[in-house]
Amino acid sequence: MSVRGKLNTGYIVFFIIFATASIFTLFNMNTVGNKVETIVEETFEQTVTVKEIQRAIATQGMFLRAYYLDPSEFNLDRLESYNELLTNQISLLSAFDNSSEIKTIISDLQHESENIIAIADRAVTAINQSRLDNALNIINDDFSQANAQIYALTVPLSDMESSLLNNVVTETTDTVALSMNIT
Q: Which residues contact 166 (CB under 8 A, 6 or more apart)?
């Protein structure tokens, strides 16, 4: 084989290797991009939903106490709207594709949200019946404990979502590094 033939063969082999590496890199980048987009969107939505649950229980307690101090229709309406928000956010959270561990926590959240709403209803009934000492005990004991329980259930959910995002970042970094090394 002549020098020209050897050079042409070398160029062809180089081109094939370069094209293969480029296709591999493009495939990896596309796969990573799609995976990151899906996970970040879903994880972000779940994180926002968990924060909404935390906000709902905090605001729910605020309006229950406000209703105790001023049993107005406004405070009662706000309390009921945050009861509804809590229920809706937990339902939204359960609609995601979750692991069995997260499903267990969501089930516990659903149970505890029903419990806290029932406790709030008991407090409102006591306030409406002018049993203010009883209402205050319900608010400070039962309601506060249920509130703390719901918050405690949301903390591991936030931690799991953060862990999932960290895993995606690590996986993405590793895939990009592999693709860069190949090219």
A: none
Work out whether the CA dihedral 178, 42, 58, 110 comes out positive or negative: negative
Q: What is the mean pLDDT of each run of 10 residues along the chain (183 residues)?
A: 78 82 75 71 82 92 94 95 94 83 90 95 96 95 95 88 74 67 60
Predicted structure pTM score:
0.72
Tracing tokens 């495939």 back to the chain, one arrives at 27
- DSSP assignments along 37-94, one per residue: HHHHHHHHHHHHHHHHHHHHHHHHHHHHHHHHHS--HHHHHHHHHHHHHHHHHHHHHH
Residue type at position 126: A
Torsion of CA 119, 120, 121, 124, to 10 degrees: 130
